[in-house]
Amino acid sequence: MRHYSGQRRMLLAVDCIIFGFDGKDIKLLLIQRGLKPEQNKWSLMGGFLQPDETLDESANRILKQLTGIEGVYMEQLHAFSNINRDPIERTVSVAYFALIDIHQYETQLNDEYHAEWFLLNKKTRLIFDHEDMVRLAQKQLRYKAALHPILFELLPEKFTIPQLQDLYEGVYDAMFDKRNFTRKLMSTGLLIKMKGKDKSSSKKGAYYYKLDKKKYRIKQASFLNFVSKAEKFL
Questions:
Q1: Which CATH number is 150-233's, of 3.40.640.10, 2.30.170.40, 1.10.760.10, 1.10.10.10?
Q2: Where along the chain do its domains lie?
Q3: Per-residue pLDDT tens over the stretch 92-121
Q4: CA 20 to 30 Å from 153, out of 8, 36, 217, 232?
Q5: pTM, two decimal places
Q6: Is-contact 42 125, C-beta < 8 A?
Q7: What is the CATH T-level fold of the domain 11-146, as seen in this structure?
Q8: Which candidate, 11, 125, 33, 133, places its Cα nearest to that of 74?
Q9: What residues form DSSP beta bridges with 91?
Q10: What percent of the chain has pLDDT over 90?
Q11: Helices (H), the chain
Q12: Using alpha carbons only, what angle is made at residue 27 by residues 213 and 226, rounded to the nearest 5 degrees?
């Protein structure tokens, strides 16, 4: 095989940042690292790009290999290239991220690498520059959630407004005024009110809603500023 002369080799890695919603809280999926240094410390799902695969293929392989989870659409986030980010040798990492419904993937999760969901705002310390990766992924997720109704896709077929508010508050790590949130939510025209109520949290209960999928498809491209002044969270 021919090589460019005068150039040194370096490693290219892929790290997967998987956020999950369990119906109440936003969580982050972590594993215990299997390699030295930092062996057995909590880490994002990472590995090295192989010669016969693309970055997208590598991200999906790594996620399945380390957690058992497959079939997740992940979006490429950023390349992390600080010279000393890996103490062993020069390694550039391309990070991918996704936000999933935890319940849809419960049966796939394996424990070979002790994969575990952590509350996002109470997670343990991460290795290398993985904290930076998570912060950037949170910023990108908040940006996307402010411009498009992507978070609606994480909800069950019927849901309550408090449940949706929990989801948005988890993503933005902020408290929203209940009346203002409800008003803005209803102004989108995306929800259909149902007759039944969820009375698990109170006697009065909260009405169930479902997503108007026809309007949702139309409004995906024009859903703007659902979260007011979202830039302050970015």
A1: 1.10.10.10
A2: 11-146, 150-233
A3: 999 999 999 999 999 999 988 999 999 998
A4: 232
A5: 0.87
A6: yes
A7: Nucleoside Triphosphate Pyrophosphohydrolase (3.90.79)
A8: 133
A9: 11
A10: 61
A11: 55-67, 130-147, 161-172, 178-187, 213-219
A12: 40
